[in-house]
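Listing S7. Sequence submitted for prediction.
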Amino acid sequence: MRRLLLLLVVAAFAAVGWTSGADSGVGTQVVLAGIAALFGIAIGGALFRRKARATRNDVDTGHDIPGMGTSTADIAANYWRDRGHPPLMKPPSPPPDQHIHDPDRLA
């Protein structure tokens, strides 16, 4: 049913394009009908599109082993402990006496 309605909208737009070039040559009428049909496809497709099914993004795909720290649930659970870095990818922390923004060491 939706396909039939879409074809009717496209045919209506093509007919409008064909009649808009009635005083011109056949080539011009064909081009205008084609352009109008493209607009009809876009508008009809927007009107009669199917609603997308809601997909669940919070479901784990099962590729990760639970508890290893690499699944999205493990990363979310240990976010504050790991300071936002995935396991084994945490940058090394400097020794306690070295500071990045130490005013005495700025040169």
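Caption to Listing S7: primary sequence and predicted structure tokens for the chain studied. The first helix runs from residue 2 to 20. The mean pLDDT is 80.
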